[in-house]
Design a protein that fits this description.
By secondary structure, the chain is mainly α. It folds into 2 domains: 35 residues; 117 residues, Cytochrome c-like domain (Cytochrome Bc1 Complex, Chain D, domain 2, Orthogonal Bundle), CATH 1.10.760.10. Helices cover 43% and strands 2% of the residues. It contains 7 helices and 2 strands. The longest helix is centred in the N-terminal third of the chain and has 31 residues. It is globular. It binds heme C.
Length: 187
């Protein structure tokens, strides 16, 4: 590259930098004033999107269910993909694998691997059944959660799951993760 070319490039890069800087300043000014477009979103409009449940159970909705009811829902809506009693096939195994996490051939299931019971509820409500996510009622999700936790030996067969009881369930691998971010309560 000739000296003149380098000079031109340097000038061009400088110009781009100045433009970006000016645009940034304009963006900041526009942000302050607001573009005057759109309307403020109403709480009832974003409520369907605001379905995250925290590890401590915050966000769990009203409703309840037990393993016997969950078994019926499971047979109708989950069995085809997750197998008899959650043992797997053709899709993920949901039950078992306890005590295998230190092995080379780990068996990771919601029972052996997942640290929080509230995530089981959150995940099923949000994502399953695979072909019809968010089609289950909260009672069905509580019942399925109870069924899968009881198959994993984490709760008793007759324990009813609701916002209060599910938040108290202790998962076997609850201490198996190192949080990378500050936790609620640390701040
Ligand atoms: C059409 C097949 C299909 C059906 C029906 C289905 N699932 Fe799934 N399920 C999947 C697939 C595929 C995955 C893996 C998704 C991924 O990893 O992104 C999965 C993952 C899961 C997981 C997470 C497993 C893990 O360890 O990561 C849970 C829990 C689960 N399903 C529960 C259910 C429940 C409960 C039902 C019934 C309401 C159900 N699924 C119905 C296909 C299905």
């Amino acid at each position: 590259m000739s000296t003149r070319d380098s000079f031109r490039r340097a000038v061009a890069a400088g110009a781009v930098g100045i433009c970006a800087c000016l645009l940034g300043a304009r963006g900041a000014a526009a942000q302050q004033a607001g573009p005057g477009l759109g309307v403020e979103i109403a709480p009832e409009d974003y409520a369907p999107w605001d379905i995250s449940i925290q590890p401590d159970g915050e966000g769990l909705p009203p409703g309840s269910g037990d393993a016997a009811t969950g078994a019926q829902v499971y047979a109708a809506k989950c069995l085809a993909c997750h197998g008899e009693e959650g043992a797997g096939g053709p899709n993920d195994r949901l039950v078992g694998g306890h005590g295998t996490l230190a092995d080379l051939n780990q068996v990771r299931t919601i029972g052996s691997f997942w640290p929080q019971a509230s995530t089981v509820f959150d995940y099923i409500r949000r994502a399953m059944p695979f072909q019809a996510p968010q089609s289950l009622s909260n009672d069905e999700v509580y019942a399925l959660t109870a069924y899968l936790l009881s198959l994993n030996g984490i709760i008793d067969e007759d324990e009813v799951m609701n916002a209060e009881t599910l938040a108290k369930v202790q998962m076997p691998n609850r201490d198996g993760f190192v949080p990378a971010w500050p936790q609620r309560g640390d701040r």
